[in-house]
Amino acid sequence: MKELKEVIRLVVLEKRDIVLSIVFGFLAGMSAVGLFGASGYLISRAALIPPLYALTVLIAFLKLFGFARALGRYAERYFSHRATFTILSNLRLAFYKKLEPHAPRIFQKYRSGDLLSRIVGDVESLQNFFLRVYYPPVVLVIIFLGTIVFTSIFSISVAIVLLLGLVVTGLLIPAWYTVKQRKLASRLRHARGELSTEAAEWLYGFRDLKIYQQLDDRKEKLQQSSDDYIREDERDSRQVLSSHSWNTFATLLVSWIVTGLGAILVAEGDLNGLFLAMLVMISLTVFENAAPMAVLPSHLDDSKRASERLFSIVEEEDRGSATYNLDGELAPDIQVSNVSYRFPDEEREALTGVTVSIPAGSKTAIVGASGSGKSTLLQLFMKFQLPSSGELMVNGMDMKNLSEESIWANSNVVLQENHYFYGTIRENLQLAGEDLSDEEVELVLNEVGLEFDLDQPVFEKGENLSGGERQRLSIARAFLKGKRLWLLDEPTSSVDALTERMIFDHLYERASQDTVVLISHRLSGLEKMDQIIVMAEGKVAEAGSYDELMQKQGYFYEMKQIEKNIFST
């Protein structure tokens, strides 16, 4: 049950509703047993034509049991479902709190459709844990024990039969189907994940599939995933139905045994015949509470696997205690010592033995060909990833012990791909701070060469903006945030040379005392950098100031000459 440890912890938090659910469930179950038992006794008693007052008392008890059963069932449903919805809410919140700090890394390890299936489907599966797994056995045992104690007053033999029936219907049959269910449940969940993944790919790539005329092929793949899921779901449903059928058969068999045994006891004079109908009705009624046990194996296995799939995401990503926060008042110092990194499920190392020193308040450019490891190194600085080996220190503290939230909160970040929300220019820029004035925003827009009305609409993902406008808007957000660490990944790749120069002039002015790390393919305009780090095949090829690297006539010099030749032609 270790897979359900976190879920059980959240369930136990709702102690009050759980206790009330059990109390009213017991009241409803025992009232039903009393109602049908009293009905059987009333029928037998009425056959002997007793005094009217005796029948009147029995009828009053019947009404009392009926009222208690209705009240108990309503209250049991109310408190158990309220507990379930609260537990589900707490589960979503607990999972989100664990997932959020690792979000950048998660998307590199899991496909979006699979994540969607886990976050939605598996969380929904866990809503059945309390109602179908945790709660029914408790109520079943209490009701059965109460019934068996009452039945033993009239016949020990019948009480033993009911006890054996409890073992068969409440333990043996569910255990048997638990073993059979495991393989089917695994295939069903895998099929559901595949279907969610293919559906997400279909929606995200619909335009490209249309353009390249591959829509029909992808549609067939999606249809196949759908058929596989439906087939596995049907198998699972047949398994549940089979379990329910065997459980019902066992309960009816127990009632037949009680009837036959009771008849023998009456014939031998060991049981008053007035109580035979009562015992038979009790046996028929008490096993109604065993019906949920038929589907318990399915829900138990489903809950275990859902919890395992759900929390395995965040457990795998829990790589550090994150006990310290980055000091936002100081320009940070970054030291990288013999760091290597390999992306999940890849054999090739993206970084190998990288050693870099970025002093506080310095301006550092990281250059190199595509795939040389520049952006990967920047991801390590943002703690989107953690090194496979080596040390990454920020202000003398190991990156593993720094809170991701504090790093992001105290960084001005511009990535190659930045998200733009549906809304207005003002709303997208207010991500940097909700208390920004229009004057501040307009000043920054002017610095990045944009002349936007702040109320101008922005479509989803910034579809109504050009590539250069989107980049400059993200730079404006970084300017407005104004923290002491600047992490810029190709911030001006879609901007013309004159605008780029203007933007960098304002950047140097704003970040004069800050730590700046710039990733760039372009080699022009790097003369003002304190140091340039040249990456090649995941390693540091060379490092130094612009003048030092040009005088050295090494890797950087060759890149510069190639760039000059290209632009001169």
From TrEMBL:
One of its GO terms (molecular function) is ATP hydrolysis activity. GO terms for cellular component: plasma membrane. SMART domains: AAA. Its main location: membrane. InterPro entries: AAA+_ATPase, ABC1_TM_dom, ABC1_TM_sf, ABC_CydC/D, ABC_transporter-like_ATP-bd, ABC_transporter-like_CS, P-loop_NTPase, Type_1_exporter. It comes from the Bacteria. The chain crosses the membrane at residues 20-43, 49-72, 133-154, 160-179, 245-267. It is a multi-pass membrane protein. It holds the Pfam family ABC_tran. One of its GO terms (biological process) is cell redox homeostasis. The keyword Transmembrane applies. Residues 19-288 form the ABC transmembrane type-1 domain. Keywords: ATP-binding, Membrane, Nucleotide-binding, Transmembrane, Transmembrane helix. It is found in: Cell membrane. Residues 334-562 form the ABC transporter domain. This is Thiol reductant ABC exporter subunit CydC. It comes from Halobacillus litoralis. The lineage of its organism: Bacteria, Bacillati, Bacillota, Bacilli, Bacillales.
